[in-house]
Structures are given as structure tokens and as C-alpha cells.
Amino acid sequence: MVKFAGTRDVIELVNRIGMAKMFEELVAEAEADFARWPQFEKVARVASHSRDGVIELMPTSDGETYGLKFVNGHPKNTRDGLRTVTAFGLLADVATGYPTFISEMTITTALRTAATSALAAKHLARKDAKVMALIGLGAQSEFQALAFKAILGIKSLRVFDVDPAATRKFARNMADSGIAITYLPTAEEAVTGADIITTVTADKRNATILSDNMVGAGVHLNGVGGDCPGKTELHRDILLRSKIFTEFTPQTRIEGEIQQLDADHPVTELWEVISGAKPGRDSDRDITLFDSVGFAIEDFSTLRVIRRLVEQHGLGREIDLLPEEGDPKDLYGLIRAGAPNETKLSA
Amino acid sequence: MVKFAGTRDVIELVNRIGMAKMFEELVAEAEADFARWPQFEKVARVASHSRDGVIELMPTSDGETYGLKFVNGHPKNTRDGLRTVTAFGLLADVATGYPTFISEMTITTALRTAATSALAAKHLARKDAKVMALIGLGAQSEFQALAFKAILGIKSLRVFDVDPAATRKFARNMADSGIAITYLPTAEEAVTGADIITTVTADKRNATILSDNMVGAGVHLNGVGGDCPGKTELHRDILLRSKIFTEFTPQTRIEGEIQQLDADHPVTELWEVISGAKPGRDSDRDITLFDSVGFAIEDFSTLRVIRRLVEQHGLGREIDLLPEEGDPKDLYGLIRAGAPNETKLSA
Known about the structure:
Shape of chain A: globular
Oligomer: homodimer
Order of helices and strands of chain A: EHHEEEEEEHEHEHEHEEEEHEHEHEHEH
Helix content of chain A: 25-40%
Largest interface: A-B, 87 and 86 residues
């Protein structure tokens, strides 16, 4: 039997432990995995492109545990009331190849993306950072706000979105968050005085959410929305003034903000900073940019946290994804024996 | 919600409709998909190798439906009473990227491998083939025997395995199969007089299950067991006398019997025969070889059959792999709303 955690389990889990604790767990696990980054098998996503979107497989392994995320990206889905991104993931045992855990990852990916942003900012932003600007108030926005509150103590947000409905939704969801939120009429006004600027807009094009004059010395940029070829958010001149940090560079060169730069433009991988191999920010006047596109190891870390917490809280269900044990050479015997009784399976 | 078919559902389904009907359904679907082979997206397996085995992803798409199989191969598993190969699969909607169906594929892969063998033999063996030799009586053997009975009317088998326990298991499982089975003490005796020779042994090495003198004119060879680098069953001289048929040639060059041949040795892809583009057997004296290693499109066809039959028979369960619908920009609202009641989910 394989443990399955559905959306119901993940929602129940987060409600039991709270978003702050959830982000603490996710960031701690991701931090430990970034610190041992060279141990992981790293391959570019396996993508199946179609007219309206893409289906991607994101596998990795640390030699003991194998992790896989299945994720789609279909921007037009929202026209039909469907979600742009849905996902699920699995863990398997490398020694036997047996799957051990399957989980929803639509909600979980939102948690992991925000946790990764907060982890990067913890290592790259100025230690005295107090105010974050948040540009783009879509599906990822509340997760970013709450992750930065939990991990960096950010309690002051300056926010902007072109869509009034998204802004209302954000305001409704964050009303009791304990974060002081200032709603600004333009991105330019939102970023004024911010120590950290998070961009998480959704347009699939090369946009200029931030122009060069909007980013002053000492700022940490958390670029989340630019995450596929042809989709960027920052003006190229900002990149040229920034110290740039990536996850898995070969993938970021194709998908991240740095697709605007030469292929040999110097970048530092986040794991090098977290493991202590390389410095992050050199001074309080540096502009640091975390050029986030998402990588399989983050999903691996997240799945391990979800599995552990689901176990601890008695959530999840067993599903018969694998046959019962028996003579390995007698697979047909399973059919001859007939379907096991419902009562032999847990509910 | 996503439909899930577990091992219990697949076992129940096969018991309800019978193995013959199951193979008829699988071969009909696979035949239609082989006939439209150029429409499919074809990539080599995505493999994660480790000391004791491999975990593979096998994706494909016909532009409307996306299919994926997750499958492991761990020969040492049997030492611990575990299965060498386990698998599960999924179908997703290309237009939206949403997964729609998840199924066990440990049992189902055994069905699809035998169905593919029978489909190939239907197009490549002599029309008057009556007797099949079956070398190797492991997990796949009963499936091969029953597929060839259902699709080609083979009712006479000559069988051999080095392992008496495997032979006893085969005899027990096939006692009421309606197939006349002759047990022979050597592979050489088993193949004598056979019109079709199926090799499905498990040793992970370059073995010589069949030597050149054992294969006479007119025979169809169904080479199933040689399916990864360093694992072959047929002597190279047999290959040089045979007309060779493959699934996806770039993969077969690495994994199949033809890894023993030059990289430009002529082969014909099975879909070319099934679609009518190229001839199969030229005469009743040809030796034809189906160099089977398994390809993603076969799993795609099989998953579609299982989904359809599971629906028809009211089997399977809904699982909450995806969140409920709602404002796509309000993912966090799902968490705030709390976990849906158990009663809102089907059992």
C-alpha cells in the first residue's frame, strides 16, 4: 500500500499547524537540502508542450529517496474557471524502486515556491529588511506574504496589482494576517522605500514590471513571476546592476530573468551561499536578485515535509497503487486469487 | 476529482471480463494506436539509475491525451520477496493539463507487454502458426500464453524454465487454461517444431537462450526478455538471419537484442507494418523477430482501455488529487475555507 495525501489532507494539515509553522518546517528542510545540493541528481524538466500549455515532469534523487513532480502550466485555463497550474508529486524508495507516497501538489507547490523565496531572502536580503513590496496579487501572493512574515519577520507590505478583483481577494484573505498592508495605485509607488521587492505577476510575455529607476541600492529582488521562455518581469538594466542568484543555472538560463543576458553572465547558485561555499550579499548597498524558476529538489524537500507531517497528524489514506506481496514470479496468481475484499484494504 | 484504479480494481475487472476479452480489447486499442504512430510525441525513457536498479518515466501524448508511466526495475528485489517491476500510470488532458486518471500498472504492464507481443505476432507470424515455444516461466509467462491463445488461437505450448519452482507455478496457474502444454527438459527440445518462439527469461546479462541452430525457417521470434543494456537472449547469428521489427528504434538500439548489431543494421518499425506502409513477413520461410522492449505508446493505449472498462464496470474511486474548482487566483482561499467534509468526497 502507498500513502496518499489529497488536497483535503494538505488543507487540514495547514489549518492544524498554521501557515507560520508550515513555512518554518519547509524552509528548514529546504535549507538542509540546499546545503547538500551536490548529492542530488539534477536534470532539466521533461516538458511536453502543446498549443495551450505545457506538462512537465520534475524528477530528482538523493540516492536514497526519489522524488517526482507532475505539473502543468496552462495560462488560458483561467478563462474556463480552471487553474493555470495543478500538480501532484510522489516519493519512491531508490533501493527498491517502490513508490511510497503520493500527494497533491497544487496547494503544496504554492507553499514550496514561497518557502524557497523566503529561504533565499533569509540568506540574501539585508539583515535589517523590514518592508516588502509585493507586485502581483494572484494565486501565489498570500503565500509569499505569509512566508516572509514567518521567516524574515516582514510585517509591512506595500502591494499593487492591475486587477482590482485580485486586490480585493488579497485584502479579504489577509485581513487577519497581522501584516500591515498598504495598497498603492502603481508598481512604482509600491516599491518606494521597500527593502525587498517581490514580483509575482502572471503575464506570459516579456513585461517590465520593474524599470531600472525603481530599484535602489541595498534592495533584495525576489523575482518569482518570470519563469519560462519569453516570460520576464525585470528590465535588463536592473539585472546588469544586480548580483544574481539562481537555483539550477542551466534551467534558469532558459526560463529565468537571465534569459535576457549573455549565456556566460556570472551568477551564483543559491546552494553555494547556503552551504557556505560562496558569499551572498557583499554589502548593504548591493542589489541582490533571486531569479526563481523552481527546481525539482525544492519539491523533493517539500514532499518529505508533507509526508512527515501527514504521518504525525494521522492524515492521508492508504491506496492500493501496488499489489500485495507474494511470490514475485507469480503475478498472474494475483488475478487468479481475485480482488481482495474491501475490508482487507484500509478505508 | 481524479479517477483512481487500484490493483483491486484491475484484478476485479479482469476477473469479470476474462483474460481473453481483456487481450482483445488491449490489442484492438494498441493496433489502432500503432496505425497512427506518427501522431504521437516520442521520447526515450527518462531514467534514474542507482546501484540496484532503475526508476523510469515513460511519457507520450497524441495531442489530446497525455500518458505517463512510472516504472522501476530492481532485479535484486526478489531476494527480499519484493517484485522486480512495479508501475503506475496516469492520463491527463492536454488542453488543460489536468490529470484525469491514475491507475496501478504492475499487473497492467504485464497485460500490455503480452498484448503487444500478440499484436506483433498477429502481423508477423505465419498465418498457419499453431505451436508456440515459451522459454522462461516467470511473472510474464502466463500473460504471454493467454494473449497468444486469445489473439492467435495458439492452443499448444512447449515450455521450459531452468527453475522447477517457476515451472510448477506455471503448471498450477495454467491447469484450466484450455491450452495443451508440453513440459520439456531443455530449451532446445522446447523449440523443436514450434512456429513461434517466445523468450521471456529474466537474467540480467547477455545470455544465449537460443543458439543459431535452434531456429529454423519460417519461425516467428518474440524476444521479450532482452530489454535493457547488457541483457539479451538470442545469439547474434540468429539476428543476422532474421527480419527484425522494433517499436521505437532509437530505444531498441540501446535496450533490445539489436544492441548486438551495428547501429545502422536495417530494421522495420512495427507501426510501419500495422499501418500498411511496409511489408512484414515476405514469405513462409522468413524468420521474423519482434525485438520487444516496451514503449510509452503501448502504456498509453493500455491506460485508455483500463479507464474505459473501469468506467463501464463501475469500478475505481475518485481521489482528491486536484483542488475543488473556485477562483483560480484564490488558491489561499482553499486553505482558509478549511478541509472539505469527508462526506463531500466519494468513498
